[in-house]
Input
Amino acid sequence: MTATTSHTSIADYVLQAHALCCVRGERQLFADLDLQVHAGECLHVSGENGVGKTSLLRLLTGLSKPESGEISWKGQAITMDRSQYHRDLLFLGHRDALKDDLTALENIQMYAAIDDINLTQEQAFSSLWRFGLRGREHLPVSCLSAGQKRRVLMARMATRQAKLWILDEPFNALDVNAVQALQTLIAEHLERGGLVVLTSHQSIAIPKVKVLEL
Amino acid sequence: MNAFFAIIHRDLLLVMRRKSEVLTALFFFVVVTSLFPLGIGADVALLRKIAPGVLWVAALLSTLLGLQRMFAADYFDGALEQLVLSPQPLVLLVAGKIVAHWLVCGLPLVLIAPIIGIQFDLDASSLYVLMGTLLLGTPVLSLLGSIGAALTLGVRGGSILMSLLILPLYIPVLIFGAGAVYANSVGLDSTGHFSLLSALLILALAFVPWVSTAALKIAIE
Amino acid sequence: MSKQNNSSFSDNRLIHWFKLSSPSTFYPVAGKLIPIFWTLTVIFGVAGLWISFFVAPVDAVQGQGYRIIFIHVPASWMSMFIYLVMAAWAGLGLVFNTRLSAMMAQALAPVGAWMAFLSLWTGAFWGKPMWGAWWVWDARLTSELILLFLYLGFIALQASIENPRRADKAGAILALVGVVNIPIIYFSVKWWNTLHQGASVSLTKSPAMAQTMLWGMLLMALCFWMYSIAVGLMRVRTIILERESHTDWVRQLSEVKR
Output
């Protein structure tokens, strides 16, 4: 059951935040923050540890509520139609969110069911193979290395068909090849008119990156 | 509805891969019920009298043990956030997790209770009543327990705290469940108890998934 | 919980109300109200105790010892009432996202728990000379015990969660679930009591109350009510200071500067 959208052009996909204020515990992390991300753009949120990068990303996903301010997607506040926003959104946090006792294939299929995506077995396999997991699809994820787990996540990103990717430290603990693969994946997504918001300690070799310093 | 069954399938699959967790709760039930004759004495008449209460309290405690599993694992590996961000209604996913929990922790109790009941010399009709009350009551235990599990997610000392929060709420189920078996064993009619248990089940089904969902969102913030 | 002048319900009053929902404006107002409520507590307390000790007649069956019901019954009433009020404040805090409402709930919980404990303790003191047992599993005492557990659960939950906002909201859900469950629990305990008709003793099966006894209990109930408000306001002021300690207005206060 996939939602039918009216003919939305690429230009309509915009993520906007206005006058965001974030309080964690009793500390105010940032106030009066504005941002805009358009189709095909990648926003790199940078700053020192503890300055509020993860908090900002969680605010953008709707997991946390801001102290004040509002966030809108395609011109509509995200609190209005959460289901639709979630459909367009893919979030990857610090932790892998993969079930260690399930195989890579089962994880992909499980997420497809939860994300309401029609995924055939062939599509799942080809996605896993694309990221170098041929022969490891039926291994429990606990047997995979950290880099290979991230590749399973990349396979999920590729099959998810979400417009907006919010990624928290996606390049952490990745080897050079995996970093390359992820950068290619993100670049392809941007070319298709997708949006990316990410945090990273390293510099990223992706064309047309906007930087937001917190 | 797709998400509902997908979650149940996922949780059951996870349990299959780690059967020891489930069996531990079941063994706990057996061990606890055995402690009472050891502590009180093997007087058959006395055992028959305390059997409904003992079995029901043991069922409560076993369910509490199993409640840790409901949300904690998903919370700590980040899968819970993904569930909250699913396009499908979170209530369905939470309801699915509760059903999976009941299938793993509640239903086995219903099936093994008659065997323990025989150890306490309950007669056949009381055994049927026991199974019936557990069948109606254990889903309520899973439902109410999900509220406690959601509220104490990630909190230090959460499991003991959860027990303190939920046990007072379990008391009506205990009273009606054990009361039905006791009434039957002394020859009284137990249909009143059954209708009250059913009422509790319907109330819990109607309201608790939403409450647990709200509690989960608060824990995730 | 503070009272405004009961003038006609105008827009002004609505604005006053919302201004009062900020901790910084509520703090001084509460400070001024506390002595008033302490005074009322003493007045009602003296009146109530005077009636209970000197005016109410000696009971034919129970002698002088029964007078402890003048503490026991009002304490039970207050423990129930405070739970409702606490749940209402917590619910308001959850719906309107106001910190002060949640702080009020947090302030009232120990007061209510203390009332429940007092009710149980005085119930035991009443039961021992009357029925020969320190504890009697009758419906009301058992329900009171369960109410005490509900209070302790609420307090424990709020104490265990480090993030204050999450503690507020989680506590609110627990309190609201508790409020819905209290009638169910009470009904089931009464059912249980009649089913297992063990001792047919009941602390409520006292003979018809003399008029003066009712008056005595009402006055003591009012005394406890004023006491609860006074202590509640004192506690909420402390909680405000704790939780708002990082704000400017708290640092400017004379009691903090000292």
Summary: Chain C is about 80% helix and 0% strand. The mean pLDDT of chain C is 82. Residues 118 and 189 of chain C are 20 Å apart (CA to CA).
